[in-house]
Specification:
Helix content: 10-25%
CATH architecture: 4-Layer Sandwich
Number of helices: 5
Number of domains: 1
Amino acid sequence: MKKNINLALLQMSCSDDVKENFNKTVDYIRQAASRGAHIVCTQELFQSRYFCQVMDVELFKLAQAVDENSPTVQTLRELAAELEIVIIASLFEKRATGIYHNTAIVIDADGRHLGKYRKMHIPNDPLYFEKFYFTPGDLGYKVFKTKYADIGVLICWDQWFPEAARLTAMQGAEIIFYPTAIGNVLPAGTGVQGDGYFDSWQTVQRGHAIANACYVAAANRVGFEENPSPLFGTGPIGESGIDFWGGSFVASPYGDVLQTAASDDEQILVCPVDLSFVAKVRDGELFPFRDRRVDSYGGLTKLYLDEDSSTR
């Protein structure tokens, strides 16, 4: 029997006004619910501009406590219960002074805070200075049993690591959500776009959907955000900023892209999926777990296989 639900991905631009960004997201969540969404996912760090373009200790003030009673979480819990939807929200978590995480929370359709996932893989590239801000996650890979589906949540840079998707799917995830903030770094003063790798970004996630016979849903931000380093903080002055490429999408267990958002505009992407298709593919066609040779994968626990670390 089919088990149809609707996923919603919120793709938006952000201003310097944290309250404005939050209120816009709440409005978009309401719009998604009015269009029949059962599970709604925000983009990465939706309450602010992508502040990791620079290294500035003042920006730690954007972080907040993330627990079931913190103000932001409480507001989202009340919203989820009112609309009877599941909400996945990406937040900048202050765990303690000097310890901060890039964190996603999951709230069930009755308003219960089911828990959090802390981003495991932390990049450090031009205009993506996340290692300055975020301590790597310590909660492992998790699956949340919500009213509508068993879901996993990974965050942005986690997208490039098949191990993360595999370990999440092995716990029964029918859908893996990726809140994301990714785009092209633009060279300063040239007026041209930097080299983009949108196709690689989408393709690797489609591969996760195929390899694990699950749905993958990635919510990205959109719009140009200027590199603020000439104004404050420490960062490169050779880039003018990041042009976030949008393109939020949902992929099926066959890797088909079911829906894709625009590359240059805000959008509430609502996509129907049939969860019974996950079991059909896992049981009858791909067997992604049955045929694994777990006895041969010991090398995956090593950083790199050379002559000294080989498992031969």
